[in-house]
Amino acid sequence: MNKLGRTLLVVLVLAVCGMLLYPTVKWYCFVPQDVKNLAAGSNENIRDWARGQASREIATLRGMLQSNRNQAVPEDLGYLIGYAEDARKDNGIDKPESWDIYALLSSFRSEDELFSVIESYYRDRIMEAKRLSGNVLQLGLDLRGGMSVVLEADTAGFEAQHGYVPSGNELAGLLADDIEILTSRIDQFGVTEPDIRQQGADQILIEVPGEVDPERVDSFLMSRGSLTFHLVDQELTNRVNRAYMGNRAAAFRPDGSIIVPDYIPEGRELLGYYTEDEYGIDELREFVVIYSDVALDGTHLESARMERNPQNNQPVVNFRLDSEGGEIFYDLTSRHVGEQLSVVMDGKVKSVAVINSAISQDVQLSGSFTEDEARSLAVALRTSSLPIDLTVVSQQGVGASLGSDAVTVALRAILFGLMLIVLFMVIYYGPAGFIADFALIMNFYMMIAVLSALHFTLTLASVAGLVLTLGMAIDANVIIYERMKEELAGGKSPYDTVKLGFGRAFWTIMDSNVTTIIAAVVLSVLGSSTVKGFANTLAVGIFCSLFTSLFVSHLLFDFFVKEESFKGVRLSWRRRI
């Protein structure tokens, strides 16, 4: 490859690395801290916050309309003008000469439409930040604080209940179901999204980042959930929906909770009926008024799964009750044929079905389910209990101050190590040291970009691997430069000195790095999570250092040392090549 082609390749690599690194730089440097805090919460918390914002802003707009309908739209509500223009275009209404409060509000067909616009604006903003946070270089618990919990499968309790010990494959399946159930509880308990994964043959590792309440985490891990069945008051349900569904701004308080009308009597409860929206979180479908008395408790539920109705191939949810629950359910359904029955999970209605006939142990819920909704409902029903019980083996917390100190120490280690290496190369190799330093900085830049693209979690062990890689990267340049000195001492020309120096050092560098890569792969496969972080960082760094030391450095020398010229670059402050 000629010099122009190599130059374009280096520029392309720099540009691609910049694109890979952009999300991380944007997240850590340009996203406000309050947005980061909101994005760290659960999807349900984000939805409730957005609804609260919508309720407050609609109340503000309503008050401004009553005081002076011709006043200008405030700057903090100026984002609504764009939505109002789109609404007028869709409705065939001309754009006003100037935007005042009346013109803004009259652009929307109803207050409920305006509520949806404001809610979507705020929720999309935080959800975009949440998606961005998942595509950046992450900080491990030892750097940002949090809690680490190791849970172990209670095989003895499973044997006492079922009469046998689960085999390896069956145990892995049970733990996978446990992980699915624990993950499904994230939004219900409002816990910042944890990392939940299997560790070893019979353990589950859970890492909850940020400042957490240990008691709240315990409830998230060990709670059996709240699953109940309630009869529906259809008359009051219809009345509430007529009042609220067209004016959702009047249905919610600023904190996102539902306002219960005065005509809801004692012994009834007003809940929301939720299905998953395009964000994968619960979206209000309608309001349901239920009887407070529990018709059937979820502890009688033995299993639940998503299947398809053989008659129309529509998704349905089949669940089975124990013998006691079957008797209770049969008595209930016998006395209330034609009425509606709701499934309530942690204060939210998950399904409403009409009782067509008396039902015993095997129950089928059908309706206008999508496959994802049916699967989610089956998971929700199963969260009342875990397939195999778990016991806490260890629970460790890292305080926010300790995490902040660790970040400071890690950054200092990287910067001081980099500065010392850069300084040494300039002092010992003179102007040629600047070429090695440029290659080293590019190596560091490429490493961070690749780790960011892989959504890598940076721990203190990873930082150690990063610093070690920087030292090994400069070691390749040292080998090349020492070979150049040998060739120069043999009387070679500047051009031949560079060519032979890189050529004869090539296999030495490759041999040392290949053996290191083999060790890194073994550590990554067989090591613990901490060792894997070190090994993965080391492996990425080696590939980047091979490119920068053998390719980029050679290209830079070629710009200064040419075959037809006797000009060269100083290999030290006393010797020129």
Walkthrough of the structure:
It is a single chain. The protein has 577 residues and is an alpha+beta fold. 57% of the residues lie in helices and 16% in strands. It folds into 4 domains: 101 residues, no CATH class; 93 residues, Alpha-Beta Plaits; 156 residues, Gyrase A, domain 2 (2-Layer Sandwich), CATH 3.30.1360; 161 residues, Up-down Bundle (Multidrug efflux transporter AcrB transmembrane fold). A hairpin with a 3-residue loop joins strand 3 and strand 4. About 1% of the residues have low confidence.
Short description:
The protein is α+β, with helices and mostly antiparallel strands and 577 residues long. Helices cover 57% and strands 16% of the residues.
What's the topology here?
Elements: H1 3-29, H2 33-39, H3 43-67, H4 79-91, H5 101-105, H6 111-133, E1 138-139, H7 141-144, E2 146-153, H8 155-162, H9 168-189, E3 195-199, E4 203-209, H10 214-222, E5 227-231, H11 234-244, E6 268-276, E7 282-291, E8 296-297, E9 301-308, E10 315-321, H12 323-335, E11 340-345, E12 348-354, E13 362-365, H13 371-382, E14 390-398, H14 400-429, H15 431-453, E15 457-458, H16 460-489, H17 494-526, H18 529-560
Parallel strand pairs: 1-15
Antiparallel strand pairs: 2-4, 2-14, 3-4, 5-8, 5-11, 6-7, 9-10, 10-13, 11-12
